[in-house]
Specification:
By secondary structure, the chain is an alpha/beta fold. It is built from twelve helices and 13 strands. It binds pyridoxal-5'-phosphate.
Length: 404
């Protein structure tokens, strides 16, 4: 099978039949929509009422939306007065949390804290806030991509209002010490937001046990379609909306609710609850097997991040002396989908800010590939990957001017 990117082709000329034969190891970028979720969408296609309308069609849609809201709140241990604001995606949830909260705290006298490894939907908000006068501390990470808690403690100031640190990193899967961060925030009366887009549905969360004030998630990372996300927000946290509108979502996010998206993500959550522990174990074994097989067959590789401190579904590997782009093209040709760096930055040839923050050299960072597993992957798919990858790496190294 040959699947080469052919940007000149019109969409209808793409070999879509062979897409089904692709092996998909890019679940951290997005997940396929689960069959059960598709069924839920299909069986609700006629639910078109506006959830704000006060007639039977609207009231029925409202009931469905509120049931899903309740399920999500229960899943994270939220209380009755805590909010779940449905949004369009994880990026919007992050923007709403950080910008919405800081609209009540003017620059000049406000200190805020984040890490050096955030997703661009947090990192770029902080960069913007810094440019308009907020005092920002960026907490560094260690070689495994875990934030340095002592530095976090030291960075707290009298006027620190917000800490935003991700639950787990999207490039390496590194899991952050969320309970400790929550404790530091609580002891210092600081609001704590976490971008849980990668961790949600994979690592169980109780926002009260972990002292999380705001938590972002995204539907398309848990087998729902794109276009639905959420921000859990504890009672008492005051936000200013970034989308003003007709008062939907507690007045925090204008716009008629994406009813079908909400129904879909509700079904996705039910499946998460059924499969969570078993699935984490299964994906962990797949990752361990890939680590071993890579080690046996390909010299000069580095696993980025200690596997015992990273999520079961993400493995980030640097291949010395070659650019990840070469591997990507080789695997594309074989119909095997992976990412270099994170998907959101995959059209830029700058080394990953996450890997360089961990102390990985720029050259090794440019040679890094992210394999990420999901519900539809089977252990046997590793055989096809490993029958191709060593050859691709070897050929690339033969041509590399920097590999010896
Ligand atoms: N945060 C993290 C950690 C992510 O991995 C992503 C997406 O890759 C996002 C935020 C953005 O989510 P969305 O694509 O739903 O905007």
């Amino acid at each position: 099978m040959t699947i080469l990117p052919q940007p000149s082709k019109r969409p209808e000329e793409y070999p879509f039949e062979s897409l089904a034969e692709c092996i998909y190891f890019d679940n951290a970028a997005t997940t396929p929509v689960r069959e059960e979720v598709k069924d839920a969408i299909k069986s609700h296609l006629d639910v078109f009422g506006n959830p704000s309308s006060k007639h039977p069609k609207g009231l029925f849609a409202r009931q469905l939306v509120e049931r899903v809201r309740q399920d999500f709140k229960e899943y994270v241990g939220a209380k009755a007065k805590d909010k779940l604001i449905f949004t369009g995606c994880g990026s919007e949830s992050n923007n709403l949390a950080v910008q919405g909260f800081l609209s009540n705290h003017r620059p000049g006298n406000t200190h805020i804290i984040t890490s050096t490894i955030e997703h661009p939907s947090v990192a770029n908000v902080f960069k913007h806030l810094e440019s308009v006068g907020y005092d920002v501390s960026y907490i560094p990470v260690d070689v495994d991509g875990i934030i340095k808690v002592d530095e976090l403690k030291r960075s707290v100031k009298r006027n620190t209002k917000l800490i935003s640190i991700m639950f787990a990193n999207n490039e390496t899967g590194s899991i952050q010490p969320i309970a400790e961060i929550g404790r530091i925030a609580r002891e210092n009366n600081i609001v704590f937001h976490t971008d849980a887009v990668q961790a949600f549905g994979k690592i169980p969360v109780d926002i009260y046990e972990l002292e999380i004030d705001m938590l972002s998630f995204s539907g398309h990372k848990i087998y729902a379609p794109k276009g639905i996300g959420g921000l859990i927000c504890r009672e008492g946290i005051e936000l200013v909306p970034i989308i003003h509108g007709g008062g939907q979502e507690y007045g925090m996010r204008g716009g008629t609710e994406n009813t079908l998206g909400i129904i879909a993500v509700g079904r996705a959550l039910e499946l998460v609850k059924e499969n969570n522990a078993r699935e984490a174990e299964r994906l962990g074994k797949m990752k361990q097997s890939l680590i071993e097989r890579l080690g046996e067959t390909i010299p000069d590789i580095t696993i980025n991040g200690d596997p015992s401190k990273t999520m079961a579904h993400i493995l980030n590997v640097s291949f010395k002396g070659i650019e990840a782009e070469t591997i990507l093209i080789g695997l594309n040709t074989e119909g095997i989908c992976v990412s270099k760096g994170s998907a959101c930055s995959s059209d830029k040839i700058i080394p990953s800010h996450v890997l360089t923050a961990m102390g990985v050299s720029a050259r090794d960072a440019l040679g890094s590939i992210r394999f990420s597993f999901g519900a539809y992957n089977e252990m046997s798919e590793l055989d096809r990957l490993m029958s191709k990858l060593p050859g691709i790496v070897e050929r690339a190294r033969e041509m590399s001017p920097v590999y010896s």
